[in-house]
Design a protein that fits this description.
The complex is a heterodimer of chains A (about 120) and B (about 110). Chain A has about 120 residues and is mostly beta strands. Helices cover about 0% and strands about 50% of the residues of chain A. In chain B, a hairpin with a 4-residue loop joins β8 and β9. Classes of the chains: A mainly beta (about 120), B mainly beta (about 110). The interface between A and B is medium-sized, with 27 and 27 residues.
Chain lengths: ~120, ~110
């Protein structure tokens, strides 16, 4: 079974531009979460989608948005890029109820490294 | 509010020895899941082990075991027989309310 895929793997943008990152979950997984990882802030939760609905979101400005399609693929968009948006963006997918406690083990993609100049 | 604390920024262990990575958590939810992930230099997060809040026994997965002490709100990862390939960042995480929060991580160095 193929893992979580993210495209593109690397991206260089300039301040003020916008960017769209894509995530394809493991086949059968319907939940997709996005995280931002930086050396200073660590791993921070952006948002989570299940069946095209956002169920939770982290403390990020409105410039960060996402969506999920009917095939569970997800995209996140960052508008008006700032230097501080340079980070590794990780996507994770999960199959709700897959563990004994009904919790969701998340499987991560390789990430997209975004550099904002 | 949920919180995960990893107090060891870096750890060294001799190859073939066991090592314990510490993790404490805080939540008011009665139902939650605790996870450990490994992140090599390539950046990909690799799932290692899971412990549910209602699980009575400590989770084990091969060389990994999770020392779950619910009353103390700790979920330490034990790696037995360390290998050079275990050198990586290790993150403790907690799932609840449709989101997962991560600790700051512990960088493990395995010495030959």
């Amino acid at each position: 079974k193929a893992g979580v895929t993210q495209t593109p793997r690397y991206l260089i943008k300039t301040r003020g531009q916008q960017v769209t990152l894509s995530c394809s979950p493991i086949s059968g997984h319907r939940s997709v979460s996005w995280y931002q990882q930086t050396p200073g802030q660590g791993l921070q939760f952006l948002f989570e989608y299940f069946s095209e609905t956002q169920r939770n979101k982290g403390n990020f400005p409105g410039r960060f948005s996402g969506r999920q399609f009917s095939n569970s693929r997800s995209e996140m968009n960052v508008s008006t890029l700032e230097l501080g948006d340079s980070a590794l963006y990780l996507c994770a997918s999960s199959l709700p109820g897959q563990t004994s406690g009904g919790q969701e083990t998340q499987y991560f993609g390789p990430g997209t490294r975004l550099l904002v100049l | 509010a949920q919180k995960i604390t990893q107090t060891q920024p870096g750890m060294f262990v001799q190859e073939k020895e066991a090592v314990t990575l510490d993790c404490t958590y805080d939540t008011s939810d009665p139902s939650y899941g605790l996870f450990w992930y490994k992140q090599p230099s390539s950046g990909e997060m690799i799932f290692l082990i899971y412990q549910g809040s209602y699980d009575q026994q400590n989770a084990t997965e091969g060389r990994y075991s999770l020392n779950f002490q619910k009353a103390r709100k700790s979920a330490n990862l034990v790696i037995s027989a360390s290998q050079l390939g275990d050198s990586a960042m290790y993150f403790c995480a907690m799932f609840g309310g449709f989101k997962t929060i991560f600790g700051a991580g512990t960088r493990l160095f395995v010495k030959a």
